[in-house]
TrEMBL record:
It comes from Hydrogenobacter thermophilus (strain DSM 6534 / IAM 12695 / TK-6). GO terms for molecular function: N-acyltransferase activity; UDP-3-O-[(3R)-3-hydroxyacyl]-glucosamine N-acyltransferase activity. Homotrimer. Residues 92-171 form the Mannose-1-phosphate guanyltransferase C-terminal domain. HAMAP family: LpxD. The keyword DNA-binding does not apply. Keywords: Acyltransferase, Lipid A biosynthesis, Lipid biosynthesis, Lipid metabolism, Repeat, Transferase. Belongs to the transferase hexapeptide repeat family. LpxD subfamily. This is UDP-3-O-acylglucosamine N-acyltransferase. GO terms for cellular component: membrane. The gene is lpxD. The keyword DNA repair does not apply. One of its GO terms (biological process) is lipid A biosynthetic process.
Length: 324
């Protein structure tokens, strides 16, 4: 399409040749002729070697370049990719899928070969379930949800509308709960469920445990990266973002718009307020008040130097006593 049409589509201001032909999209690292390159910073623009061969989507006009100037470059990219590179899914129920008794299946559904659908499952309209996925008894799957290959959803879980669950995710396994007494370690039988609200995305190999008695809840619009662990009885608020290798112990509660960066660990029964950000590799052992940025991590340093620092840390109590 022509650059002028792209500008109209993105609601941006055209700077340059409206008839410049666009044949696709390419990255800042590998720009290709006649493509659209989204540059969210000056550094991105500088990395494009020959700006005359491409068209730029930028926040600030670039001299001698064909540009579409927009308020938010990343949002413009999301819009463009969604429209011009739509995700395509098949439809139809395979004869090689196992479908249990009293299953309700909506319109436009795809159930791939070698999937397992348990008894009394309700599957909404335009749901897509890919091969080797398991849906346990009495689950509810909302409209337009996509369940990629190899996902396991244990019985009695509720999945909302427009949810995306990537390969290897496990929803509704037992929480890690035991009673330790004279008789040894006794397992606590988890009879609760998991509720995934609308517009949630769950990354590959993420696990979300079922509650002991009530519900583990993932709030509307939350986005969870790959390899995240969410323990039993957690209550996750709306529009949270959990980056890879985050781990939440049981009964954690988060407010709205919480961001946990990579490898953040949260202890059990901790509450985190609205609009909180926790930096990577931090441990959260106590409640966090709303509207703050928290964290305590230690960047990598030379090993022998760290050992010396550690020895001094062990001596700090004695040094304080001497100082007082």
């Amino acid at each position: 399409m022509k650059l002028g049409d792209v500008a109209k589509l993105l609601g941006g201001r055209l700077e340059g040749d409206k008839n410049f032909e666009i044949e696709g999209v390419s990255s800042v690292e590998n720009p290709k002729p006649k493509t659209l390159v989204f540059c969210s910073s000056k550094r991105d623009v500088e990395r494009v070697k020959d700006i005359k061969q491409v068209a730029l989507v930028v926040h600030t006009p670039v001299q001698d370049a064909n540009c579409v100037v927009v308020e938010d470059v990343k949002y413009a990219m999301a819009m463009f990719l969604r429209i011009f590179y739509p995700e395509e899914h098949p439809s139809g129920v395979s004869e090689k899928a196992y479908i249990g008794e009293e299953v309700i299946i909506g319109e436009g559904v795809y159930i791939a070969p070698f999937t397992y659908i348990g008894n009394k499952v309700v599957i909404g309209n335009h749901v897509k379930i890919y091969p080797f996925s398991y849906i346990g008894d009495q689950c509810l799957i909302g409209d337009e949800t996509v369940i990629f290959s190899g996902v396991h959803i244990y019985p009695r879980c509720v999945i909302g509308k427009r949810v995306r669950i990537h390969s290897g995710a496990v929803i509704g396994a037992d929480g890690f709960g035991y009673y330790i007494g004279k008789e040894g370690i006794t397992k606590l039988h988890h009879i609760g469920s998991v509720v995934i609200e609308d517009d949630v995305e769950i990354g590959a190999n993420t696990t979300i445990d079922r509650a002991l008695i009530d519900r583990t809840i993932i709030g509307r619009g939350t986005k969870i990266d790959n390899l995240v662990m969410i323990g039993h009885n957690c209550k996750i608020g709306e529009n949270n973002i959990f980056v890879s290798q985050v781990g939440l112990a049981g009964s954690v509660k988060t407010g709205k718009n919480v961001v946990l960066a990579g490898q953040v660990g949260v202890a059990d029964h901790v509450s985190i307020g609205d609009n909180v950000q926790v930096v990577a590799k931090s441990g959260v052992a106590n409640d966090l008040e709303a509207n703050g940025t928290y964290g305590a991590n230690l960047p990598s340093i030379e090993w022998s130097r760290w050992k010396r620092i550690y020895l001094y840390l062990l001596k700090l109590p004695e040094l304080f006593k001497k100082g007082s």
